[in-house]
Amino acid sequence: MDFFEFLNTAVTPYHTVDCLKSYFKEKSFVDLGSGEALASQKAYFVCRGASIIAFRTPKNFSAQSRFRIALAHTDFPTLKISPNPDGMNAGVCTLHTEVYGSPLYTSWLDRDLGYAGALAYVDASDSKTLKTKLIRGKKLFRIPQLAVHLNRNVNQDGLKLNPQIDFNALWSSAPETGKNLFVSALEKELPEGARLIDFDVQLFDAQPANRGGFNDEWIYSGRLDNLSSCHAIAEAIVGAKSAENDCFVACFLNNEEVGSTTREGAAGNFLQSVLDEVFARMPQTSKRACERPHTSYLAESIALSIDMAHAEHPNHTEKHEPNHAPLLGKGIVLKTNSQKRYASDLMSSANLRLLCEQADIPLQVFITRNDMPCGSTVGPTVSANLGIPTVDIGEPMLSMHSIREMMSAKDHKDMIKLVTTFFA
User: Fold this and answer.
1) Class of the 3-76+222-422 domain?
2) Which DSSP symbol is given to 162?
3) Nearest of 103, 50, 49 to residue 74 by alpha carbon
4) Residues 135-144: what's their mean pLDDT?
5) To 10 degrees, what angle do helices 379-386 and 270-281 make?
């Protein structure tokens, strides 16, 4: 799957899952379905909302089988269009937005903004059956910054934004007045006679991904956190061959940026239910279940929690712990934290170090400064809920949570190589 095409297409979590599902189908992965026994040496996938899990079954599911799980998230910080968004100021139709996650506020100003998401609707012939449709609008919106002439001290004092006031997007100068103008615009995306019931639509950076740097060594794009990890995992599991005993799992979960406590998130039961299905429906499972408890094979499995990592900023080196400052283009980052904001522990970190040695991949280590708070990932949640030893890793990047982020092309190749080795 072409990385840039994926970055440019996966503009919402819904579109991310749609891209991954299409890719898995193209590579002969089968929709999990319900009831029938699973076959050995076959690949499957299953979706729940804007999350998707794919897995590859082993040649022999036995008492020696374990799960090798790679985790990423499908969502990213954004501005969601509110349920009743319409406003009119200074002759301009505006859309009120709601902040999702923790975007870098100022990066959303003076940008070409697309809009995309999912619509729930009913057909004219059937008013009781809900259907859904993914959309990606063809028009561009904008949130203009106040001119320096009207904010004279902005360069000295810094730009301070109030998200309630400053994130109303300008979308039309049409003369129409009244309510539900944006809903009327969305209804034009539906089949003739259909009625819109609800929508989940967000803004996104409409500028395509591109190469940067004098030697084209960097990648500039929106949504690198965490589409980069999703792409690496997808490439690895598609290219993998079934193992003798172990089951390979690629897990792409929604809502990490807002805490994961949703039915599609890491704190939900989606991953657990899929692992239970594999355990119940693979041949030899009944015999094996009598031999050892269900939880023991989880405790002896291993997971890679793959999210992005903070590269050292050349203009702000003081923001990093001096001995733990990852550099762009210098390898995968092991993320660890004594307060357990990352899932990495002694044995999972040691396993990663061995894996990097085997694959000849350079490894860097990141910890936050003691005087700064640390972020988190899906890793601690999955590890705590399922008891699976987990290590947190990532590709170093700059401008994390900006509408436009930056990473090294070499590090992405290393990540694909690492996950491929993990599934080998």
Assistant:
1) alpha beta
2) -
3) 50
4) 97
5) 50
Q: Rounded CA gap, 89 and 172, in Å?
A: 11
Q: What is the pLDDT of residues 42-88, one digit of tens each?
A: 999 999 999 999 999 999 988 788 999 999 999 999 999 999 999 99
Residue 287 has pLDDT above 80, yes or no: no
Which structure tokens are listed for 53? 């899990």
The CA-based angle 397-398-400, given to 5 degrees, is 90
Q: Which two tokens stand for residue 282?
A: 């693979």
Q: Which helix (H) or strand (E) holds 333?
A: strand 332-335
At residue 216, what are phi and psi to the nearest 5 degrees?
A: 55, 35
149-196 pLDDT, tens per residue? 999 999 999 999 999 999 999 999 876 666 678 999 999 999 999 999
CB 19 within 8 A of CB 6: yes
Domain boundaries, the chain: 3-76+222-422, 78-205
What CATH class has 78-205? mainly beta
Give the contacts of 43 (CB within 8 A, at least 6 positions apart): 24, 27, 28, 29, 30, 54, 55, 56, 57, 237
pLDDT at res. 86 = 93
Query: How many other C-beta atoms are found inside a 10 Å radius of the C-beta of residue 31?
Result: 12
> In the chain, pLDDT over 70 holds for what percent of residues?
96
Q: Is 10 exposed, middle or buried (0-12, 13-18, 19+ CB in 10 A)?
A: buried
